[in-house]
Known about the structure:
By secondary structure, chain A is an all-alpha fold. Helices cover 70% and strands 1% of the residues of chain A. The longest helix of chain A is centred in the last third of the chain and has 36 residues, at 285-320. Chain B is an all-alpha fold. Chain B is built from 14 helices and no strands. The longest helix of chain B is centred in the N-terminal third of the chain and has 39 residues, at 11-49. The radius of gyration of chain B is 26 Å and the shape is flat.
Amino acid sequence: MTTAVGTTPQSPPRPPTPTPARRTGPRAWATRAPLLPALVFLIVVTQLPFVATLVISLFDWNSLNPDKRAFNGLDNYAAVFTDAALRDSVLTTILLTAGVVIATVVIGLALALLLDRTFFGRGIVRTLLITPFLIVPVSAALLWKHALYNPEYGLLNGALSWVGELFGDTTPSQPDWIADMPLLAVIAALVWQWTPFMMLILLAGLQSRPAEVVEAARLDGASAWQTFRYLTLPHLRRYLELGVLLGAVYIVQNFDAVFTITAGGLGTANLPYTIYQTFYQAHEYGLASAAGVVVVIGTIIIATFALRTVSSLFSEEANRA
Amino acid sequence: MTATTVTAPAPSARRVLRRAKRRNTALGLLAWAAGLVFCLPALWMLLTSLHAESDAATNPPSLFAPLTLDGYRAFFGADTGVTPWPPLLNSLGASFFSTVLVLLLALPAAYALSIRRVRKWTDVMFFFLSTKMLPVVAGLLPVYLFAKNAGMLDNIWLLVLLYTSMNLPIAVWMMQSFLADVPVSVIEAAQVDGARLPTVLARVVAPMAAPGIAATALICFIFSWNELLFARVLTGVVAQTAPVFLTGFVTSQGLFLAQLCAASVVVSLPVLAAGYAAQDKLVQGLSLGAVK
């Protein structure tokens, strides 16, 4: 995946080590040597398995029936796109990712704007807000599933009982959250966990906004909304893009929440979960690999934009240096 | 500020100021409310973990039930004798050793990308980044097959290697930006004195970039500690990590809510501590160094 190379910024001149002239021989190797262990390690541990996945995806291979292993070209890919369950999990992945990313960006932006001002106890509020992000993902998923969503004694229905009692309703509705709205239940838990991340990125963006310009706009009589619309939002654009794309790259890969909260049931199986199941429980190695390659292609599309965004931020950084 | 001083703002300006102040207070309160709402599930987890089982699972919730450490005692095996220590130690080992390995690989690489720059260093940076965007599931099966044939299933050293590959790109990006801040003159002075690269890295660069390196280490540790998919597929009984233990915990013993919350608190504690310590760096790590 070297899609972003074409958009890579030029290395800026750095006074103490000017862009080196073509170096050859032992000197060039002395420069490269420190880089090699990391590069070789990454290629062996991440790229080789992916190549193997590509190869396996072209075979009809079920490990319960190893004698039948045979090359079958693109049949697995055809199966990925025609299998109803797999197609559903593609749709689920899109809904889940889009839902979580949009909600976290909107709430994260609101929270970042609230925190980008001085008020009593700002540090404490910031700490409270990032806590969801620091709960181990499996713990967070278990917490939502059992302590919050449980229809009999979960906090959500407990709160409904309280409110009901307050208004004299002794039998308030007690929805079974996960059964009634499975995908929404997973999305809500993920939104809770990822909003702090968006907030922190956008807060970093807000705090890099030049104070003089905002001050000048205020003196010129711009309203709060005008300042936000014409100054803050354009300045935040890069950070919003970055948040959306990184959020998408992380959420597309989500496994913990789906696995824990619904175990992929009730139409919440996303692609990572389906692939896990296809090879770990159904032992369909070829099919699982083809689905994996499809996820990679989808991610490359998102990641190309993500890399471009990071690249533009990065080149700003490099030019400033 | 009294109205008698010459520099006092005109009445209208003062009214504007007062209104702005009131607005600020209101927004501050709103921020507090949002913070509490977001933290509520976590606080609820903590409170439930401190209740007796009979008080933990009630509707409506029993907020003021007496506090007890029974949930924690049960989690640490007081009743069943099943202790969580092996999985916790596995997680600790896998996270610690992979973090060390990441630092050993990333520090020289970052040196080559920031101080003694290789040609086309930005291309190399983006290669590292692109591996991070490769979905984990896409390489899992071959890794599983390899581990099975090599007899490396249920072995934390395999997790150490995989966690290293998972965290290495982030670490290279973060360290690159930290090392770029180390003055080159200092490094050159050391080299003039005859220091070779490992010495320069260990004696000059590492101490100067120490806070950044510490933050990088914390983030790598957190990611490894949190990881579920690799651990779930590649470990069984012996090398089971804490997140895998947690998922199996519910099914094997039925549901004890207080105990489950206690378990979640214990497993999250290292991440919470590390995360609070490295708040800003955490975003920088997650956003691959793009946000400083």
